[in-house]
């Protein structure tokens, strides 16, 4: 017996209990609707996906080649099409996630219009997008199962029992489109209580993994912009605790917290840390401050001073009332941030870097793993990096160090298309191709994501279509560049009515009204041109 059979039998028994009033109810139709609605709440999704992430984390610990990946999405449809594509081309969604980027929520989903990545958007937009994404993924399940049910009916009508049994097995082993979402809560959108309340909404919407950063909430900047301000560890740990309490309150005991540090590129702090004794966490945080040693006679009104080795030190305070760290301390601060976060409730780390350089990342991870051996990273394969230029320069430097002749290249102009066919460019492209594999093996990267790729692909594809459609190509730009490719490459959206749920609705109408159902998918439906 299968789950599908079990549901049919259970509904059949229930129908018999209710007698004549339920004569119109078909048990198999109910079983189909149940299969198409496997996840009834966001918390069910959060628990299911948390279990997936924990299994994947354990698999990575055993074998670093078992890393995971995701692309950032800003709309449920984009996430849906991504997972449909993964299943079509790769056969499984295993180790493929979704990333919800605060940058894209700010840029694309705020009622204020496009905003910079500074936590200015409505905080409710974040859980709303999580819920939207999972609504579209559940609809993808419903659609694919509906297609299988139609095939099953056709096989039965043809008397093909072998085909019917095969389709039944596909129904019973169906792999859902529901995958983990790593969701960006920025710097927590306020104090720890605000962080807790928003985290609860995100978890209730289905998030099993929440990423939080150590910037000041009201001064938050994009990780790849200047002016970043970090907070003392105690402040950040309070927010990590707030997220954990939210998970535990809602019963997701294995929820995942990703602690992000922006210290590598952040040269400022809003306040000094509280220190109770030499060498404690607050003292270590303050030890990175840029200070000048003074005597009591040098003190002025309003000065703030700290003691260090028995001497007075005045931290350098900016007109903004922020304090600055000593230049060159970023990597040390990153290591302290990461070790502290892992020892105080975080599960994964995120180190925001200024370039994609495996050895730079690995150097920090090696220091972290000296204290926490199973430390693992979520890493941003950021579109803010110029990947072509960065890797061509890395290869240039490597070749020069090996004594190769690089006189034919201008290191400052390696983005130039004239280098595209060169051996240096080929070597750089190969390093880009293997970056995720190499980074996972060498630098402890468990999860590779690209924060806002679909922002760029939407703009690029729209530019391609607009250029041709409004130019000389006219309708051919759409037909050749979009529809013909959809047909030949098996892109499901070519039957857009089906993708939007028209056939599911027709089948439901037939469940509800039988032969009297008025269905949209008859012979005059132009979608039949793509059958």
State the helicity in percent bands.
40-55%
Report the sheet-strand fraction: 5-15%
Q: List low-pLDDT spans.
A: 222-226
Mean pLDDT: 92
Task: Report on the architecture of this protein.
The protein has 531 residues and is an alpha/beta fold. Helices cover 48% and strands 11% of the residues. It has an 8-stranded parallel sheet. It is globular. The chain starts with a helix and ends in an 18-residue tail after the last helix. About 1% of the residues have low confidence.
SSE layout and pairings?
Blueprint: H1 3-18, H2 27-35, H3 42-62, E1 68-72, H4 76-90, E2 96-100, H5 102-108, H6 125-157, H7 161-172, E3 181-184, H8 192-205, E4 209-213, E5 229-230, H9 233-249, E6 256-261, E7 268-269, H10 281-286, E8 291-294, E9 306-308, E10 311-315, E11 323-324, H11 330-342, E12 348-351, H12 358-369, E13 377-380, H13 387-401, H14 423-433, H15 435-442, E14 445-450, H16 453-469, H17 475-489, H18 496-499, H19 502-513
Parallel strand pairs: 1-2, 1-14, 2-3, 3-4, 4-6, 5-7, 6-12, 13-14
Antiparallel strand pairs: 7-11, 8-10, 9-10
Helix pairs in contact: 1-2, 4-6, 6-7, 6-8, 8-9, 11-12, 12-15, 13-14, 16-17
Catalytic activity: D-threo-isocitrate = glyoxylate + succinate
Pfam families: ICL
GO molecular function: isocitrate lyase activity
Briefly characterize the structure:
The protein is an alpha/beta fold and 531 residues long. The chain has helices at 3-18, 27-35, 42-62, 76-90, 102-108, 125-157, 161-172, 192-205, 233-249, 281-286, 330-342, 358-369, 387-401, 423-433, 435-442, 453-469, 475-489, 496-499, 502-513; strands at 68-72, 96-100, 181-184, 209-213, 229-230, 256-261, 268-269, 291-294, 306-308, 311-315, 323-324, 348-351, 377-380, 445-450.
């Amino acid at each position: 017996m299968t789950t599908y059979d079990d549901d049919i039998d259970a509904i059949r028994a229930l129908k018999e209990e209710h007698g004549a009033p339920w004569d119109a109810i078909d048990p198999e139709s109910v079983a189909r609707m149940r299969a198409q609605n496997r996840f009834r709440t966001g918390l069910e999704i959060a628990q299911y996906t948390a279990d997936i992430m924990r299994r994947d984390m354990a698999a990575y610990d055993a074998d670093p080649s078992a890393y995971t990946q995701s692309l950032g999405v800003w709309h449920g449809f984009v996430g849906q099409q991504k997972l449909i594509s993964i299943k079509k081309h790769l056969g499984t969604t295993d180790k493929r996630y979704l990333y919800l980027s605060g940058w894209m929520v700010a840029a694309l989903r705020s009622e204020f219009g496009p905003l910079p990545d500074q936590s200015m958007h409505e905080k409710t937009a974040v859980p709303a997008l999580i819920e939207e994404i999972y609504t579209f993924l559940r609809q993808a399940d419903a659609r694919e199962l509906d297609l299988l049910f139609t095939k099953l009916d056709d096989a039965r009508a043809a008397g093909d029992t072998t085909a019917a049994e095969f389709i039944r097995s596909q129904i019973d082993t169906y792999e859902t489109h529901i995958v983990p979402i790593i969701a960006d809560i920025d710097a927590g959108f306020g104090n720890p209580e605000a962080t807790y309340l928003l985290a609860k909404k995100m978890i209730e919407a289905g998030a099993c993994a929440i990423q939080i950063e150590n910037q000041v909430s009201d001064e938050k900047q994009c990780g790849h912009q200047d002016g970043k301000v970090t907070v003392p560890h105690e402040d950040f740990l309070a927010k990590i605790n707030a997220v954990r309490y939210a998970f535990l309150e809602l019963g997701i005991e294995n929820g995942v917290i990703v602690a992000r540090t922006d210290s590598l590129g952040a040269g400022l702090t809003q306040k000094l840390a509280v220190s109770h004794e030499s060498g404690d966490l607050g003292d270590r945080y303050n030890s990175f401050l840029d200070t000048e040693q003074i005597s009591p006679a040098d003190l002025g009104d309003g000065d703030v001073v700290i003691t260090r080795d028995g001497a007075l030190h005045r931290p350098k305070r900016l007109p903004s009332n922020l304090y600055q760290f000593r230049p060159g301390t970023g990597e040390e601060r990153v290591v302290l941030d990461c070790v502290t976060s892992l020892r105080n409730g975080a599960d994964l780390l995120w180190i925001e870097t200024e370039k994609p350089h495996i050895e730079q990342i690995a150097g920090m991870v090696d220091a972290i793993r000296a204290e926490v051996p199973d430390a693992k990273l979520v890493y941003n394969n950021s579109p803010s990096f110029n990947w072509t230029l960065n890797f061509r320069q890395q290869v240039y430097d490597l070749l020069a160090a090996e004594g190769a002749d690089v006189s034919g290249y201008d290191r400052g102009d390696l983005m130039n298309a004239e280098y595209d066919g060169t051996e240096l460019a080929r070597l750089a492209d190969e390093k880009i191709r293997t970056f995720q594999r190499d980074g996972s093996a060498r630098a402890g990267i468990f999860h590779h994501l690209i924060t806002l790729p679909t922002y760029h692909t939407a703009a690029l594809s729209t530019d391609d279509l607009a250029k041709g459609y409004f130019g000389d190509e006219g309708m051919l730009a759409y037909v050749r560049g979009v529809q013909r490719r959809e047909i030949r490459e098996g892109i499901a959206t070519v039957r857009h009515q089906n993708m939007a749920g028209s056939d599911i609705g027709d089948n439901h109408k037939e469940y509800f009204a039988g032969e009297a159902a008025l269905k949209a998918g008859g012979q005059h439906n132009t979608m039949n041109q793509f059958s």
